[in-house]
Specification:
PRTase_dom, binds zinc ion, Competence protein ComFC, two-stranded antiparallel sheet, Rossmann fold
Length: 230
């Protein structure tokens, strides 16, 4: 009896049939269109060039360190758009594998994952929060709990369209600690914030500020799927 390619699946980007063993369920051609970032500056997220130091001393961040998996352009930009706006939520599972490999590479071992929260109105419109999906798949993959102690107060304008000062003003007070968590026993020391796209780091900074005001002696780092800041 003929078996109809039981081990073949489709590339998550171009839908070409591929062997099941392909990394991140991508065909070879699509895989090579992604710029994976192995070493990044943990202060600003920019890719490190082995010959030059990163010139980001003037970047004043509150988070302890940041890790970036891929460059936000071309195929990655397109797939993240599908994940965010076309309900292609299955992509999150494969993206979480990319993030998991970065955790291995960097030796990250957080106690807890916290996704960047969506506002209530965005959740209503979209029905899901892509950063939460990434965190959930990653948490499952690595057996780490995902919690959401932060909530978003207001819709913020797209930060990438604003200057540094406007960005800080726009995001300030955008988050607060959910009353469910306020008096809860919180035993976690190493927190990893999960986000899909890094633009300026302002959102992660503001989340870190609120978390560190809430709990002393915590380490807050971030793992971001893709960055335009390179
Ligand atoms: Zn493909
Ligand atoms: Zn840097």
């Amino acid at each position: 009896m003929e078996i109809l390619f039981p081990s073949n699946i489709k590339c998550i980007s171009c839908k070409e049939p591929i062997p099941k063993s392909n990394p991140y369920s991508l065909c070879k051609s699509c895989f090579h269109k992604i710029e994976f970032i192995n070493d990044n500056c943990t202060r600003c997220g920019r890719k490190i060039d082995s010959h030059f130091d990163c010139l980001c001393e003037e970047d004043d961040h509150i988070f302890d360190s940041i890790y970036v998996c891929t460059r936000y352009e071309g195929l990655m930009e397109n797939m993240i758009w599908k994940l965010k706006y076309q309900s292609s939520t299955y992509i999150a599972k494969h993206f979480a594998k990319i993030m998991s490999h970065k955790m291995d590479y960097e030796g990250l071992n957080p106690d807890i994952l916290i996704p960047v929260p969506s506002s209530a109105s965005r959740m209503k419109k979209r029905g899901y929060n892509q950063s939460k999906l990434l965190a959930q798949f990653l948490g499952k993959e690595r057996n780490i709990e995902v919690i959401e102690p932060l909530r978003r107060k207001k819709d913020t304008k797209p930060l990438s369209s604003l200057g540094v000062i406007e960005r800080r003003l726009e995001i300030k007070e955008a988050f607060f600690i959910d009353s469910k968590y306020e008096n809860q026993d919180f035993k976690y020391k190493n927190i990893l914030i999960i986000d899909d796209i890094l633009t300026t780091g302002t959102t992660i900074d503001e989340m870190t500020r609120i978390l560190k005001e809430w709990k002393k002696d915590i380490n807050v780092s971030a793992l971001v799927l893709s960055s335009g800041r390179i």
